[in-house]
Amino acid sequence: MNLEGIISISGMPGLYKVVGQMKNGVIAESLNDKKRSPIYSHQQISTLEDISMFTTGDNKPVSEIMKSIFDKEKGGACIDHKADEKQIVAYFESVLPDYDKERVHASNMRKLFNWYNALQATGNLKEKGTDASEDKPKAHTEEKPKKVAAKHKPDTTKVATSKGVKKTAGVRKTGVA
To answer: How remote is the C-alpha of 109 from its chain's centroid?
Structure first.
């Protein structure tokens, strides 16, 4: 799963995609309603690439868990995050059987399923390196002959200036520095 640029912001619902940077933060676009908002450096931001879940062995990245959900559901939506807790836990066990039962809570599972469904609904779940444009066959286009650019001659005309005044390159002198 390619979750590059997808973030979760503490205190704000939903997922966001980083679209730009500012001096003291980033500009994020909501995946749900496409509204852009500034996210400042004092807000807690987590990228989905960096989040992982506890297992009995090594921690498993969220991208790998979402990949297994994607494969299980054949690209469709998973269980609703508002379902009964027993159903949530049973579904999560089918996806990640070796999760740490003491450290991974039902709320973590709900959040993961909510994120997965949000990404699936907006079409942001795709493999790394695959793109919709790569699936389509490319049409053969004829290359047009390139035009040879005419040689540009430098402008040698002289501009009359007042005697004794230095010409500045567009800088206005105002005040003392």
So the answer is: 22
What is the pTM for the complete model shown? 0.68
Residue 39 sits in a domain whose CATH number is: 1.10.10.1650
Per-residue pLDDT 10s for the chain (177 aa) are: 778 889 999 988 889 999 999 999 999 999 989 999 999 989 999 999 999 999 999 999 999 999 999 999 888 889 999 999 999 999 999 999 999 999 999 999 999 999 999 998 888 877 655 444 444 444 444 444 455 555 555 555 565 555 555 555 555 556 565
139 part of a folded domain: no
| Residues contacting residue 122 through CB under 8 Å, at least 6 positions apart | 31, 32
Helices (H), 132-176: 132-135
- Assess if residue 43 is contained within a domain: yes
Cβ proximity of 69 and 125 under 8 Å: no
| C-alpha to C-alpha distances, 53 to 23, 105, 153, nearest whole angstrom | 32, 10, 65
DSSP state, 136? S
Residue 63 parent element (H or E): helix 62-73
46 Cβ contact partners less than 8 Å away, ≥ 6 residues apart: 7, 8, 9, 10
Tokens of 147: 């035009």
Question: Does 27 map to a domain?
Answer: yes
